[in-house]
Specification:
By secondary structure, the chain is an alpha/beta fold. The relative contact order is 0.17. Helix content is about 35%, strand content about 10%. It is built from 11 helices and 8 strands.
């Protein structure tokens, strides 16, 4: 049995429903490890969270578009997401984010692009596999820039400050900082990492995903401490903010697992339910970044 609580299967609809064409920009897919083996000693065991499960969740939440983020437990083997995408009769409302290294050849990169992959993700979290070097990140960026892909960076706490010079060197490619930069919500908007990101959002290629405030909060519900941080990023660049549920919430370290509708409603609080901002964050911005019709 997992040491972490499982996602809530009794998903309810958020109040109100999101605008038509809304995109959940980060979900993870898993399946039977006998069919899709993980890397040796994965950072966590794959949860029971299949594409069929996800379809039901998104239907109840009211999202028509989705971005699958390839899980670190599968390393550079993209078989699970590729099989799912390539098996679809219509994948116009689906995109994906890869994890590539130097073992992924050009032919596979072309296949990923044809299937709907539109970005690559690197983690700088202490509990997850990191890129071999910063040069590896730059090589990967050079390979996907011409495809129109973007970079997703899963940073943590003060990583953006520690890597400030390296991060500023990422040019001519969109860069998305996942999950509100994974900052410490208890330290508020004046902490160095938040100030750095707000400043960096003045650069037209930098984005932030306003997700996981509930995970990062010190609170079990309500998550009031996440609201000022998210609002600071949204005010800095409302045209370059996206959102994702991060379903199925692997390695959830709180005693209480929230209903996914609560995560959507937390986003509503970030923008005071402003319809124009919700249209940007949930529909227009992700469509531009991921190439939706």
């Amino acid at each position: 049995m997992s040491e972490f609580p499982s996602w809530v299967r009794e998903t309810r609809a958020p109040v109100p429903l999101p605008p038509p064409g809304s995109c959940d920009c980060q979900v993870h897919l898993f399946n039977d490890p006998k069919l899709y083996p993980t890397v040796v000693n994965p950072p966590f065991a794959p949860p029971d969270a299949t594409f069929s499960d996800l379809q039901k969740v998104e239907r109840v939440l009211g999202f028509q578009r989705v971005v699958f983020v390839h899980s670190t437990v599968y390393g550079a083997d993209h078989s699970l997401v590729l099989d799912m995408l390539e098996g679809m009769a219509d994948r116009s409302n689906c995109r994906a984010i890869a994890r590539i290294d130097d073992t992924v050849n050009d032919a596979m990169l072309e296949r990923l692009d044809a299937a709907g992959f539109r970005g690559i993700r690197f983690s700088f979290q202490p509990h997850l596999p990191k890129p071999a070097s910063w040069n590896a990140v730059m090589r990967a960026a050079d390979r996907v820039r011409g495809l129109g892909w973007h970079l997703r960076l899963h940073v943590g706490r003060d990583v953006v400050v520690d890597y400030a010079d390296e991060l500023r060197s990422l040019r001519n490619i969109p860069v998305v900082l996942d999950h509100l930069g994974y900052v410490d919500m208890a330290r508020g908007v004046d902490q160095p990492a938040v100030r750095w990101m707000v400043e960096q959002l003045q650069e037209p290629n930098w984005w932030v995903m306003a997700s996981n405030g509930n995970r990062l909060s010190a609170m079990q519900s309500g998550w009031d401490d996440a609201v000022p941080v998210a609002r600071a990023f949204i005010a800095a660049a409302p045209e370059r903010i996206i959102w994702g549920s991060d379903w199925p919430h692997v390695q959830w370290r709180k005693a209480r697992m929230m209903n996914d509708a609560e995560a959507v409603e937390l986003l509503y609080r970030y923008v005071d339910s402003d319809p124009a901002l919700l249209q940007k964050i949930l529909v227009d911005n992700p469509a531009r970044l991921h190439g939706f019709g």
